[in-house]
Each structure stands twice: as structure tokens, then as C-alpha cells.
Sequence to fold (340 residues):
Amino acid sequence: MRKDKGKRRWVKSYLRKHFHILGCTVVLSFSLGYFWSMSNDTCQDTPSKIIEALRKIYSRPQILKPLRPDVLVMTPWFVPIVWEGTYNLEILNEQFQQRNITVGLTVFAIKKYVVFLKTFLETAEMYFMVGHKVNYYIFTDRPQEVPKVELKEGRNVVVLQVQNYSRWQEISMRRMEMINHFSQKQFINEVDYLVCVDVDMRFNDLVGVEILSNLFGTLHPGFYGSERRSFTYERRPASQAYVPHDEGDFYYAAAFFGGTVKEVYKLTKKCHEAIMVDKDNGIEAIWQEESHLNKYFVYHKPTKILSPEYLWDDSLGRPQILRKRRFLAVPKDHDAIKNK
Ligand code: 5GW
Ligand code: MN
Fold:
């Protein structure tokens, strides 16, 4: 009896003293298992005994392995970065269909840029928000040159006549003001989300509800792999778009951003106001509205980020990391199109 008790007490005190060693061993074994499972591309290479053991411990063993181990799929502030293979479109489509949402796609076709509309709209009909309601908002100074494109049910073209500006920088920057103006006046009554894009583009693969969130930005195809020090943020403190060298997460593209009408209203208001302050001060940000957008995203973090699958230019090559090229730049003959 006494002997037994003594033994038990010894075991207890041993456990108490060496609890950390046991703990460490357990943590270490799981970490090794984790890294091993990461290092294999498919589960088939992992011995079935380990798989069995993991199944017993975790009800969802797939959480041990990121869906895309080759890319960053989450930001430091825990919002998703959308790549092929990181979402289930079937489930998302069902959720958004139940909410019966309408998506507004804004695009500017000022002066010669109307030539891009046909391909833009035709490919959007094939790939953009398939199965959902869509309003195409076309801002143009040439309404009679907007092509007639056959649209599927639940999809409309809305032409918004706007003035043109003589400087191309102004055409590009004034998009913030115009989107802001129409968000309050019209979009808020007609759509749930806005997607704001360049027109010199074509859809080449599905772009669906997986992109939707309160506020989303897209990684610029030229900088998704770059370090912060290489980002081309505005670096002159005199500009409202100034971002200090030790701030910023990503370099975002002005050619693809969006969110709820309310969030896009707030973003475009802030960017437009900053552009006007710069104008009064006789300064223009290095990449116009893109610099202001990037400044905004430093201090208002997006709730979702799109990978460069959503904004690609084949002149940058075809890296393996891109499983899909969903939205592609259409090469333009600068002399023929610009400033005409
Ligand atoms: C014209 C000359 C130089 C730069 C821009 C323009 C221009 C732009 C124009 O004459 N008309 C026009 O509607 N835009 C809008 O601004 C288009 O929606 C265009 O996609 C967007 C951004 O300009 P891009 O596409 O020429 O800029 P990059 O950086 O894609 O070459
Ligand atoms: Mn463009």
C-alpha cells in the first residue's frame, strides 16, 4: 500500500516537474508532422499510419496544410488573398444567389478608349459574375459610340455621359470623382457591390463572387513579388499620397478595386479630396490616382485581396504561380489611341 502510494506520488511529482518536457515533445512531434505533410505535395506520399493518427486528432485534417503552399493566401491582418484553389465557387455562388445581389461594373471609355468596349463587354458576358445580376456602368463622352452587345438575362448596360479632360492624367484621376458622385446619386439604389476596372482589358477566365467583400484591392502584377522598398508609392511628403518608407503592405493596382457601394463611396471621396488638395498645392502624385489608392489602403486595410490572376499583362510573361489569367491587358498602340 504505502509503497504504491509512494510510487504514485513520485509519478505525480515527476510529471509536475517535467511537464514542460512532455509538452515540448508533443508540440515538436506535431510540428514535425506538420512540416512533413507540407513538404509533400499530395497526401498520398504520407504514410497511412500518420494520416490515420492525424484524422483521429483533427476533425478537419486539411487545416494542417494550406490549400496553396506555393503562395501567400492570407495577409498579416488575416484577410484572404484570392488565388485559384483557395475557395469553393459552388458554395459561394449559392450564398450570393440567396442574397440576390447585383454587381455594378464601372468602366471609363473616354475619347478613343471606346474602341475597347466591344471586347470588354463580350468577354465580361462570358466570364464576369456568371449567374448573377450585373449592371455595366459605362462612363463616356461618346455615348453614340458604345457598341450594342447581346446581354444575358439580368444584365444591363447603363451609359453615363461625362465630360472629357484634355490631359490623360486628369482623365485617369477624375475617375475617383465620377465614381464617387454616381455612387451617392445612383449606384447605392441599384447595386450591392461595385467593381471598378480599366477598359483596356479582356476577361479570359471566370471572375465571380469570390472577389466580393466590403473593400477589396488587387495586387499589381508588376509588384506582387516585390519588397516594400521597391513599391512605387508616392515618396514626396508634400503630396497627400505620401507613404513613408516603413509603411505599406502591398502595391495595389488602380485598374481593379471595389467593395460595397458604401465602402467605394468612402474610398473614392477620400482619394478625390486628396487629389484636389494636391492640385491646389501644385503637385501631382507619381502614379496619379493609383498613388492615392495605395495611400488609402495603407490606413484602411482591404477586407479581401485579389491575386494577380485578376489583373495580368502577358508582356510580364506566364509565371507558374498563375494557374489562371482571368483579366488580361489588351495591348494598345499608344500613338493611335492615346490623346485622340
Ligand atoms: C489616354 C491617354 C493616356 C492615358 C490614358 C488615356 C485614357 C484613359 C483615355 O484617353 N480614355 C480613357 O477612358 N482612359 C481610362 O483610364 C480607361 O478606362 C483606361 O483603362 C484608364 C486608365 O488608362 P490606361 O488604361 O491607358 O492606363 P494604363 O496604366 O493601363 O496604361
Ligand atoms: Mn489600362
In short: The two ends are 101 Å apart (CA to CA). The beta strands are 81-82, 102-109, 133-140, 155-161, 193-197, 201-203, 215-219, 252-260, 304-306, 327-329. The pocket of manganese (II) ion (ligand 2) is lined by residues 198, 200, 255 (CB under 6 Å).
